Amino acid sequence: MRFRDLIEYLCGQIISIKAKKPLLVAIDGVDTSGKTTLSKHLITSLKIRGYSIIQASIDGFHNPREKRYISGSKSPEGYYRHSFNYDALKQRLLNPLSEKRNRKYTTAVYDFKTESEVD
Q: How does pLDDT run across 18-74, given as a tens digit for each residue?
């Protein structure tokens, strides 16, 4: 399947889902597998069709360095358990977009590149 055909197929699948609340679509994969590229093309295609899009990444929910590396910078278990602030992800992004919630969401709370909180 060509990339353009994949985008069209995914758009069709997403559009076919009827939801009263915002529809959450997750793209998962290993580092450098093309998640960002795929999401950019998917977002563009959906916007052309008139859909409003909220784009967020788990990267906006990293923990500070001292917590991320509490088990060492090369620890697979430490990466799994300590890299991300899953509570903030749920509380600030996912829960507000749930049915009958206020829709006041945040797409990031921490910038790991600058090691600083996001306003």
A: 987 889 999 999 889 999 999 999 999 999 999 999 999 999 999 999 999 999 999
Domain ranges of the chain: 1-55, 58-119
Element (H, E) at 8: helix 3-15
CB atoms within 10 A of CB 61: 24
Per-position DSSP letters for 32-90, written without gaps between them = TSSHHHHHHHHHHHHHHTT-------GGGBBPPHHHHTTT-TT-HHHHHHHSB-HHHII
* Sign of the alpha-carbon dihedral angle for 14, 8, 89, 117: negative
